[in-house]
TrEMBL record:
PROSITE patterns assigned: GNAT
Organism: Polyangium mundeleinium
Pfam families the UniProt entry points to: Acetyltransf_3 (PF13302)
Domain N-acetyltransferase: 11-170
Transmembrane feature ranges: none
Name this polypeptide is given: GNAT family N-acetyltransferase
Amino acid sequence: MNGALVTTERLTIRKLTPADAPFILRLVNDPDFLRYIGDRGVRTLEDAEAYLRNGPIASYERNGHGLWGVALTATGELMGMSGLLKREEYADVDIGYAFLPEFRGGGYAFESGSAVLRIAAEVLALRKVIALVSPANAASIGLLIKFGFTRSAMEAEDSNTVLYEWVPSPP
């Protein structure tokens, strides 16, 4: 697939574009996204295009990374997003991921997240990656632990969020 940042056994991880607005509209309005990540106020295709322009696409230009689209390599169908976010209130980069309901539980978040962490360590040379997660999101916490994240001694800015951190192994 053209524009791939990385491919894994089953997945293509690529930059999101305004053409991905229908996918974004569906993903960010999924009840679990709203519950665990938050309401992004995206209600129309135009809102989704603005979300893409002002979020992931702006982050690619500003930071060299952002939330990337995760697609099935065999079909090109977008199933989720996974990537790295730079939040002003934190010194370290944050990993983020979200998948449509029909793609949860198939190991795709682990497969794409592992690739994102390899990019963080090997391409971007990050010394630490953090994760912000709702304490009620047991599936996400379990995934972070599987990646090798540990709960941070630091408190998250938001009291409804728990902070985890990951430090890559030395080469």
